[in-house]
Amino acid sequence: MTRKTLFTAASVLGLATITVVVASCSSVGRSGSVSPSPRAFNNPSGERADTRVLENRGLADAEQIYDYLRPGNEGTSLSGVAPDSSLLIPSDLTLFNYAVPSENFDAPPASLNLEDDLDLAGQDSQGRNGLNTRGLFGGGGGGGPAERPRARFTITETEYEWVTAGPLPPNEELWIISTSDIPAPQPQKLRFNGLEFDVEDIGPGTLVATPLGSTDFVPAALQHTDVQADIAGFIASVGVKQTFANPFDVKIEATYVFPLPQNSAVSEFVMTVGERRIRGIVREREQAEQIYADARAAGHVASLMTQERPNIFTQKVANIEPGAAIDIDVTYFHTLPMRDGAYEFVFPMTVGPRYNPGGIGTGVGAVGRGNPGASGQQTEVTYLKPGERTGHDVSIEVTLDAGGMLGVVETPTHRTEADFSRMSEGLASVRLADDAVIPNKDFVLRYRLRDDSLLPALITHRDEESGYFSLTIHPPSAEILREKSGEMPLEIIFLVDTSGSMRGTPLKQAKDAIARTLDRLGPNDAFQIIRFANESAPLGDRVVRATDRNKRDAMRKVNAMGAQGGTEMLAGVETALGFPHDRERLRFVCFLTDGFIGNEGEVLRAVDERLGEARLFSFGVGTSTNRFLMERLAVMGRGAAAFLLPDESGADVMNEFLETVRTPALANIDIDFGDLPVDGISPARIPDLYAGRPVTIMGRFDPNFDSSTVISVRGRTGRSEIVMDIDFVPGANEHRALADLWARSYIAEEINHALRTPGVNPMRTVRDTALRHQLLSPFTAFIAVDSSRITSGAYGVSTVQPVNVPEGVRYDTTVR
Amino acid sequence: MTHRARIVRRICLLALVALPTGAWGVLHQPALDEPPLDEIGLAAKGPVRFAPLDVYIDAGDDRLGAWQVELAPKPEFAGRVSIVGIAGGDMPFAEAPYYDERAIQDERVIIADFETDGLALHTGKSRVAQVQLRIESLDDPTFDITLHTAARHDGAAIDAAVEAILRDPARSTDDNESTDQTTTSENDG
Do B43 and A30 touch (CB under 8 A)? Predict the structure, then answer.
């Protein structure tokens, strides 16, 4: 055994120990010196604040470190398989690794300046002064843990002792593990405007500021969201500026979970720090998360945007210094749906509180401030309590170039100021009358073209790699469809969400909608009503004819319905689609819900598997409906989606629904592209065409195809076939956003395909498509780092932006 | 997206197609204590750090109105340098330039910008962009850099040279060129 005094330790240290673990390492240090490579272990977001993950170590290395740490550290666990094992370790441990020189040595060389490299007298990763370093030391040339000799370091106030059982072999990686001997800090107090606030741990790696007094104002990082939307035809280009600022007296990280339209192609991301604008880069999600974690730990201002659902995103901004402001500019494109002759632009402002069935951990949780992690879900939205609010508000301005004479422009959800002086030119602009609107409900703008004007059916775009097209198929008129097919009696199954989030206006609207629909059913039609909350319950065991008596009985039961409990939507869907069917009638499932669930995938898969001859029409009820679920249910259910806003008449919406379903659809649609070489058609399964509801198809074509051709759309209604020809002219109606819109549509199609097809993993296709087009997706993320400057101190307090529950939704029935 | 932004993006792509790419004549100036590459190898893959790479174009007596630059880490730094953001330079090129979407997947940066207001343009050396980097190496990476396009605001090509300087963020100042890593290249005008 050798024993050597190595150097005089920093006088501030008391008795302390350093742990050194030698682990196999394929990479070697340069001859004659030690490569000082202090590398903080990974700390990906989502881990608990008091633990960290050491990733991607070989199994033997991980086991050895684990063996050492485990006895005194209950927070340590080992998971994964070789060669990418990972360790969960307490966060007060700091790890550094050094490459061992290529020759044997039995003591650290003089060049290993532990005082400087470890910053023993400085701060640890938690920003605490001083370190209590301790532990073991060993080597073994790639052998297992048991074969490795061990050694010990001891630091006194004046000396550093090295004790080892033998020489260390070369080509090893030497791990030094240190812990702080300073007690964990007491909960921080943040000061804002002379007030003092507690910081409460609210979940994985996050803290939130809570007012101590009775004020209902909650200081938070997100100050304002400004939305500038340009609509050309039916394509919207939307710029969203989120302004973050740090109102506290310590450095913070801000996390904000927010919605965007479900078909958004998010293609631009710019972070502004002072006068500097930094364009973000799309990278694989895990890679982007790692870069963000590294940048955060290194003290750089950094931002990360990820997609949790097609309509739910997370924004993180690290190292916002006290008093500093940081803007995030996001740009996205999306197509606007046409419903009953009107195009509809929606900007969602808050995520509704989602219900997650038991056993689901990948959902979207809903928790109140101060109740972190209560949902146990991968994504968690933090809600303001009743009466509270932050300073976050929203301004919106929409510029419309409709491409045809405008008939009507309306904004049913908000008070607006508008310029309608050029409607005949197809131009209009609308802005929120108040620049400081509380973000608690969707902003909706609808416009109709005058008379029967139609936008161009075909839009194209070509770049050096591919051609892209968008083909809108307008259905024949209702008269033609009726003439070709006649009418069939209807069988309508109402599936009504009576969970807690539907309490109040949403459930009342749903009841009105059912009443109106029943009122218009004739005696040859049939119906049944199924409610679901914690479980599903049909009002009868079979469909019944729509006689006056049956309708009265049904409405008596409907009017007695209350709203409470969870949202076991899957059970409701299974009951509705499994209900005995009278084949003499056309079956429509009329699904009334706010869609506030976190297990959308399960529900969509069930619809696809069990749809049979039925068609599912989804009706989003409320101010902030889960439009992704509603739209996707309609696609899977081969029906259509509609939305009942709070001030809208359920009667009108249901009248239009009945008009739609009474008119036979054009079904079994097939598109003949002639000699035009195409691929990537989305949706691959063309939905039925209902009167007043055009369908848009996207695809790619050979960019070298230069001649005109004819695309034929064939479909059947009743026993008749209808053929519609559309001229295809490459270069027609150019729109450069089409490449990104196609990519976004193709990604959705691939994910749909995976939902329908067990065993199919869409990850690679989706990731590659998103990277190629630099789009956000479930498997890619935007990252931006300001590498030009290092902010001072540790990365500070993590704060979550609390948001409003949607208008009309009760906090106490939906939020934990 | 603004009209100007759309034009910039298009110019970037058009210039890429239209101009020869043979200007990879790179002058590499090693840092003072930089060890020979064969001693670095992959073993030198070291701590993660972040640093900005300033991109300068020297237009001499001409006023620089439009430019396109391509840069990539030298092969020996492949896998150890990641692009984590692209910032603008100094006026009139302070806006964050657009990048080529395909090139970025190979850790190559192709960026471009233009300014049509001739009065806002400068002669001499201008910082036109700043590339944000994540570096996993003990040594400062070096880069291949190409100036594909340099032109006046009326589109006339000019002779110019491009230079990239890796800065140390710890110093947090723009006046630290002397000890930072420099990579330069010239175009054919």
Answer: yes
